[in-house]
Write a structure and sequence with these properties.
- The chain is mostly beta strands.
- The protein has two domains: 163 residues, STM4215-like (2-Layer Sandwich), CATH 3.30.2000.10; 101 residues.
- It is 13% helix and 38% strand.
- The chain is built from three helices and 14 strands.
- Strands 1, 2, 3, 4, 5, 6 and 7 form a seven-stranded mixed β-sheet that branches.
- The longest helix is centred in the middle third of the chain and has 20 residues.
- It starts with 17 loop residues before the first helix and ends in a 15-residue tail after the last strand.
Length: 295
Amino acid sequence: MTDVPWTGTGGVSDVQSYSWIILNAIFDRLSNSSFFQNFAVKRITRALPIQAEYQIPSIGIYLGSEVATADGDPNAGDIRLQHIVPVGMQIVVRNNDPVAMQATLDKAKWFILNQLLRDNTLTNLYKTTMPDNVRIEGFPKLRIPSPDWGRDSKNENPVGIQLIELTYTLRSEWYPTDFDDLKEIAVTAFPELAPPATTATGTGTGAGTNLTMTGVAGTIEINATVTGTGVPAGTTITAQQSGTSGADGVYTTSVVTTAASAILTFENPVAITHVDVVYRFEPDYVPPPLTGTGP
């Protein structure tokens, strides 16, 4: 089975998720900021543990469990999702003075909120500096638990840990690939009710499958059903050999008849007329600009 062909933006979002791009944008802003530039460890993954002896102070920016739900009616149009993504931030410091340590954690917390939520290049809904203009749509939740306290691995220095969980939302749309544009629709329209059948009468004499008609009233049509003395049931007219079209003349019947100057009746087939309508679409059509003063 081959990969599904698709054409993206040509940028980072072709190979990395929006949430990963945003996580890196948050990490870059905080890890390079004045407050955290001298921290011993700055991490974007929880894969490695913090070694308290020499890796404190530290800051970690981690991606939480991403959840996506339908953006609008789930069975109408392209697949559209609204993502809810939590980002966890962990600040670890140590200080023999617990009050000073808590003050440092509070400063870190307040610095992070100001640095992220006031950054127009990160939170602008229309234009950001993130790759491929990936956009955050909002921040529905902020959770800041009280600090945790402990000691380093040598049980020497008090350690304080502040957690911040900032949840943001974004939207994604998944267009089908390798899918032809709709360019034409053909519609055949039929009348709601069939028109009434027409009939014709006349005097007929059969000889094999030849039927000679005189005194025809009405019009005899091809495929008309013939009834009368000497005509087997289900006999139809298959052609007209000579004479006036649909009137007096010689006709060909579907079976042999033995009518001899008999009064015959012809029930013509019902012609259900229809109209073929074709709608064509021009995907590249650009309507002319509106003119006038308007309402």
